[in-house]
């Protein structure tokens, strides 16, 4: 009977060991599942952070594209304005324009179409003389006492008169500088 008691006791011990191993295995599996869940949560948070960063970068790029689009529109308008100005200047240099075809009357009344040297100075012919490169040095209709060295800053006793508004063509009238 003693043998049987030991056998029962050994069997109970073995059963107890199996239950402990089973519980340990369950605990180990639970820990492994917890670790995998934690890693999955970490990966999810990384993806959320990356998505937020990408969204911010996309907003920045959208703002940059909007700014560039506005700059292109401004540049396009500037090009159109410059193209019109070049067309007008070309017409003025070749004597184009309608003002000189009206005929009759004094030049001041008819208006000028000849190009003036805006901001230029000629001792004999005043501020903004007629002809694109006209100045004191290259004047070909010098008055008595003409000084070739005269400039707008050093008139050397030359004329201080400035032509009337009617003596400028339309484009140059908008570009000229009024002097006192």
Q: Let me know the number of strands.
A: 2
| Poorly predicted ranges | 96-110
Work out the helicity level.
Answer: 55-70%
Could you spell the SSE succession in H and E letters? Answer: HHEEH
Quickly count the helices.
3
Beta-strand portion reads under 5%
Give the biggest beta sheet: 2 strands, antiparallel
What class do helices, strands and sheet pairing give?
mainly alpha
Order the strands across the largest sheet as they lie in space: 1-2
Mean pLDDT: 78
What value does the Rg take, in angstroms?
47 Å
Give the CA-based shape: rod-shaped
Describe the model.
The chain has 180 residues and is an all-alpha fold. The protein has a domain at 95-180. It is 57% helix and 2% strand. It has three helices and two strands. A two-stranded antiparallel ribbon has the order 1-2. The protein starts with a helix and ends in a 5-residue tail after the last helix.
